[in-house]
């Protein structure tokens, strides 16, 4: 989204597993919604690293690259002679990001790891769900997403360091480390007091009566009263201003001690007002809140349109395809580039080889040996 040329290396004939995950747009199995959402603005290059001669192609690609990103277990890149230790001797300015479930050191370094299992192991999943039921893994793969963000931050820092020091570096970015870091305030609580928080469910014990409430029209609203002023404003909007002056509720600790009674009062008060009406009133009074919307409601909302968070992208097969807008589109000097649809498998292999100086005969030989594949223009 920010303009980098990203070349995605994929297995010939198979590609990234994400290509095969349903649902598919218009039933076209080349158009997984998972692929479309995560691969815009990228180029697809097929390369079978197990074939003799593939390493030389990889080295030609890397010679012109600032950054290599890989997400294999620790043995794989070393097996192909493409690990950081080997590459850094030839390309000392290379920045090399290794993303894995468990990192490059420790007893799990050779194990595979995906978001659900890492979330389970690092304690994130144990905090999800209603406390009356077993814990569950979040529908949104938060550990996956925040690991990618942390990896990006580390790469940007490494690029800055390279400008000062003249050398690249290796980055070992583990999903496990990210999950533990995401829960830093929870970890600090346990490490500092020996107490671990239980699942909150609908309500937030650190900011009573913050939580989810059912409104008169059946919709639900999440109200967050983080401080005494916001609590007092919420009481005013709900028609019970005296609650904020009561010794039982005037201060945060008092509200915590009397949480069950206060939450019950709020449930009764909120139940008498429609969700959107209450949301508007609370917002005007400076009380953070949000109507609990389904993804379908959120993506078709007027506010999503105002923020340009649903965009139409030109596509060679469907004409257009829809995607979620970039969070970087409002940078004042360098906004996000115009989105380009996710690539078909191997769509850019031949053009990239030509850019690297490969002639037609050499490309034909690579195709014949199964090292790369030639992708016909999509129809």
Structural class: alpha/beta
Q: Describe the global form.
A: elongated
Strand content: 5-15%
- What is the CA–CA distance across the termini? 25 Å
Q: In CATH, what is the class of the largest domain?
A: Alpha Beta
What does this entry look like structurally?
This protein has 379 residues and is of the alpha/beta class. It folds into two domains: 6-183 and 309-368, Crotonobetainyl-coa:carnitine coa-transferase, domain 1 (Rossmann fold, 3-Layer(aba) Sandwich), CATH 3.40.50; 205-214 and 220-291, 2-Layer Sandwich (formyl-coa transferase, domain 3), CATH 3.30.1540. It is built from 16 helices and ten strands. It has helices at residues 33-38, 54-63, 76-79, 84-90, 115-121, 142-165, 175-182, 184-193, 228-237, 252-257, 259-270, 275-284, 295-299, 302-306, 349-355, 360-368; strands spanning 6-10, 42-46, 67-70, 95-100, 170-174, 211-214, 220-223, 289-291, 310-315, 319-324. Strand 9 (310-315) and strand 10 (319-324) form a beta hairpin. It starts with 5 loop residues before the first strand and ends in an 11-residue tail after the last helix.
Write the layout of secondary structure elements.
Elements: E1 6-10, H1 33-38, E2 42-46, H2 54-63, E3 67-70, H3 76-79, H4 84-90, E4 95-100, H5 115-121, H6 142-165, E5 170-174, H7 175-182, H8 184-193, E6 211-214, E7 220-223, H9 228-237, H10 252-257, H11 259-270, H12 275-284, E8 289-291, H13 295-299, H14 302-306, E9 310-315, E10 319-324, H15 349-355, H16 360-368
Parallel strand pairs: 1-2, 3-4, 4-5
Antiparallel strand pairs: 6-7, 7-8, 9-10
Helix pairs in contact: 6-7
